[in-house]
Structures are given as structure tokens and as C-alpha cells.
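Input sequence (302 aa), recorded before submission:
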Amino acid sequence: MKPSLLLLAAGMGSRYGGLKQIDAFGPHGESILDYSIYDALQCGFEKFIFIIREEIRADFEAFFKGKFPEGIELHFVAQELSDIPSGYDVHPDRVKPWGTAHAVYAGRHVVSEPVGVINADDYYGREALQTLHDYLSNVEHSHPQHMCTVSYHLGNTLSDHGTVNRGICQLNGHGHLISITERKGIGTSADGVISCKEGDDLIVLSPDDLASMNMFGLTDLFFRRTEEMLTDFLQDGASQLKSELYIPEVVTDLIASGAMVMDVLDSEGEWFGVTYQEDKPHVESRIASLISEGVYPSQLWS
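Predicted structure, C-alpha cell format:
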């Protein structure tokens, strides 16, 4: 069964100040997502699931209409607050989505195969996507209880224009994930120290720490465990206002229970993304360089 690719595109873009998922970064209006899909097609992906918000559905469908070769399967799935396990109601004051794990869960009705997951506003590179595709193409047959994350060195994932949130990987001696710790507000000081605050504590990080950039290879086990955790989540009334359920939390739980082994695949490729408007010139410059190097044609879709 061929793997599919799920693209997390429901973010609010509050720090960016707009719909960065389909903002123009290439010379002919291409988004970062265009380059990810172009690479994914080269790697063998043929089915794409866009997780969006209902209010941006029309923009997304119009943006991608007619771009891709015939035979490519596209699904636009809205992440809805009401899409929760039966028996629960949404708190009337809840505004934010339920988090990245819930975003993946929203795609469960159109996913029956191993699925790769990436952020819509991050550039991962063809090498990483090929690694992900090849892993997922074999995982059901060779290691049915295995999933994966493709990781990057933390120092290569920071922004010069503000702090970022990163999932820092802890590995065992076999290269398998122990846990992913979500570190928020990571920045670099004037003297080059990478750190973040956790309560009153300063956490110093290494540029060589492996960061999981929301690039995962998942199986049906993830969807089933997410539903169970959402049920537990919703039983706590305080969680219903602002708390979110993240992919790393579900992954860590599956590992701790012994239900799953997660392979950490270290990418040698390049990653970049946009968090702030000030990041845009850098991304535009990197894409221009990749075009000049022959990695991409000037006009991506013709």
C-alpha cells in the first residue's frame, strides 16, 4: 500500500500576520508548500491530505486547482472544534483548535495507509521526503509496530527574528526515540548560547540537539491512541478552554506504554521555515539559490 502525505495547514499564522501556508516565496508565486509537494511527487507520493480551517478552504482549493499532474489524489479536510470523540461537547468559550495531534486525527476518514506528516509552512527538502517515503513504503511489512520521525540539528532550525518552539528528541542507544520534549521560546543570546525558559529555570540547549520538526511517519496505531488521549483530555474541564494535544505527546505515550518503537531518521538535508514576516526574505533567497543550482525549475508547475 502506497504511503500518503498529510500536510498540516490549519495554523492561524498569528506571529506571521497572514496566511503563510500559501504566501508567495517563489518567482511565480509558489508557496513553500508547492515546493514540498513537488519534491514529494518526485519521491513517489501520490496522495495528499491538506488539514485546513473551513474558513480558508476556498483559498486553498483555488490556489492548488489544476496545478498537479492527473492521477494525483487530493483531499482538503477541515480541522473542526466539534470533531471530538462521541459523548463530549465543546466548551462554549473554546476558540483555538485542539492541537497538532487532533489535526492529524482529523484526517482519519481519508487515511487507511501509512502516512507522512509535515508542516505546510516548512521546507524539508527532497532528501528528507525520500527518506520518509522509503521508510513508510516498508514499515507495515518489515516493522508493523514502528513509526518514525525525521530530525534536524537544532542549530539549523532557529530564526534570527524571534524565538521558536521545537520538539527536542531524546534517543536510546539503538537510535530509537525515548521522548520528545516540547521546548517553547527557544532563542540565541548575543554570546551564541541557545536556551529557553521553563518556569523560572533557564534551559541551555546544544546546536547539535536533534529537533523533530513535525515530520513524522505514522500508522493507524497513532490515530487510535489519539482518540483515546482526546477522550482523557476532554474529561478534564480545565483542558477544554486553551490546552492542546500535540503529536509528540501521543508519540511519547505510545513509546512509554511499549506499544510502539519510533525510529529517528537523521536528515542531512536543509530545513527552513517561516515564523515571522522577517523570515520571508531569507526563505525567498534560499529558494532563489535552489533554482539557480538547478534543484527546481524557475516555474515550478507548467
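Checked by second reader. Residues 126-142 form the longest helix (17 residues).
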